[in-house]
């Protein structure tokens, strides 16, 4: 009887113990499952971090590749410019060798010397013919006087430039203030520019690289400017698309100021009836001004001329109808005057040209640009934006 009672007591007890053990096993399995899930989440987080690190490394790599490509384009332009400069110098050297050889040999070679001289004269004549074909020979007018001026506004720094685009039909005005800057102010027309609150109506165009000096020019929808921090790099910037269209290195330029009285400007770019020009000075020419014709489409040098105009006491210059006009002043400021003229086709007798004075104004100019479309000079003088009307006559 006692055994039977113990049996009835032990069965529920053992059943409860086995049930508790079963629950403990289920809890352990659940904990193990949760632990595995946490480990999976940690591995997933590490995987996400690895992906982020990879994306960041890829971005850095892309930036490096783009930087190398930009350097490659710069080197390409540099090599192209240097090769063209070398070919030009070789051609000059060959002509000089032929000439000096013709005058230093013995008298027994007189006939040979005469042939060399004739050959040299023939080559010079052929060169002039080619230049006349390249430059429109029908451009036959020259400055005879500066008739009047109008000060449109006084805004901006002491140094700067303002202009219209002579290659476009629109009436937009562009203001580039300062000798180092990277923001162009674009106005719908001259009336908008002259308003008292004109800055609120200006459209800002930001350049990828700042400019150096005040010798930039806008032509055919592009801004051509000397890049700040470079010796002689000229950038062609598409104003509408907001990107760099091309670039080049101007041989020999950038080592000394183009004009002694405007030291920030090492390269002065100009436009006339024939297109784009560059004006600068070189130590090898003892400070005399050098002018270069540039193809504005290909950014290639077409021809270079060493002029007799010195950069000493010069403050600005401009090109008009194949002719360089250099503006001089006093270091302390005074009446600006044009007293050196150089025509690339020798169509002007520069010794008979009188000194041309700028009227009704004392001071100095930071820049002067000729607008061939309107036959006017856009000047920047002591922070003022000025337009001069010019009088022309036939070249003699």
TrEMBL record:
Domain Olfactomedin-like span(s) in chain numbering: 138-394
Record keyword Disulfide bond present: yes
GO biological process, one term: signal transduction
Major subcellular location class: secreted
Disulfide feature: 139-321
Coiled coil: 69-96
Signal peptide extent: 1-21
Compartments in which it is found: Secreted
GO CC annotations, alphabetized: extracellular space
Keywords, ordered alphabetically: Coiled coil, Disulfide bond, Secreted, Signal
InterPro entries for the chain: Olfac-like_dom, Olfactomedin-like_domain
One Pfam family, short name: OLF
Protein known as: Olfactomedin-like domain-containing protein
Organism, scientific name: Amazona collaria (yellow-billed parrot)
């Amino acid at each position: 009887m006692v055994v039977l009672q113990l049996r009835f007591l032990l069965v529920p007890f053992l059943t409860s113990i086995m049930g508790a053990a079963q629950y403990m096993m289920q809890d352990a399995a659940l904990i193990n499952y949760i632990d595995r899930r946490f480990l999976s989440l940690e591995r997933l987080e590490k995987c996400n971090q690895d992906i982020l690190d990879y994306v960041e490394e890829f971005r850095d790599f892309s930036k490096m590749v783009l930087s190398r490509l930009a350097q490659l384009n710069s080197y390409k332009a540099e090599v192209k410019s240097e090769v063209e400069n070398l070919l030009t110098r070789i051609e000059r050297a060959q002509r000089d060798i032929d000439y000096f050889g013709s005058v230093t040999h013995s008298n027994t070679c007189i006939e040979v010397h005469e042939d060399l001289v004739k050959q040299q004269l023939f080559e010079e004549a052929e060169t002039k013919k080619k230049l006349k074909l390249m430059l429109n020979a029908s451009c036959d007018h020259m400055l005879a006087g500066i008739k009047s001026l109008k000060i449109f506004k006084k805004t901006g720094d002491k140094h700067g430039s303002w202009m219209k685009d002579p290659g476009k039909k629109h009436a937009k005005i562009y203001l580039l203030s300062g000798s180092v800057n990277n923001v162009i102010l674009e106005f719908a027309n001259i009336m908008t520019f002259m308003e008292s609150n004109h800055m609120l109506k200006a459209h800002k165009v930001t350049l990828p690289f700042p400019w150096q000096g005040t010798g930039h020019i806008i032509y055919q929808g592009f801004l051509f400017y000397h890049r700040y921090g470079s010796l002689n790099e000229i950038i062609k910037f598409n104003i509408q698309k907001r990107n760099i269209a091309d670039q080049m290195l101007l041989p020999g330029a950038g080592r000394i100021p183009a004009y002694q009285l405007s030291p920030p400007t090492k390269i002065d770019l100009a436009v006339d009836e024939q297109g784009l020009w560059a004006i600068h000075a070189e130590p090898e020419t003892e400070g005399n001004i050098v002018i270069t014709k540039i193809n504005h489409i290909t950014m290639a040098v077409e021809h270079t001329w060493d002029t007799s105009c010195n950069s000493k006491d010069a403050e600005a210059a401009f090109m008009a109808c194949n002719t360089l006009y250099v503006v001089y002043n006093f270091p302390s400021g005074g009446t600006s005057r044009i007293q050196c003229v150089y025509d690339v086709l020798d169509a002007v007798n520069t010794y008979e040209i009188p000194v041309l004075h700028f009227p009704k104004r004392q001071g100095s100019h930071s820049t002067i640009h000729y607008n061939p479309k309107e036959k006017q000079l856009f000047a920047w003088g002591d922070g003022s934006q000025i337009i001069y009307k010019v009088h022309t006559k036939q070249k003699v």
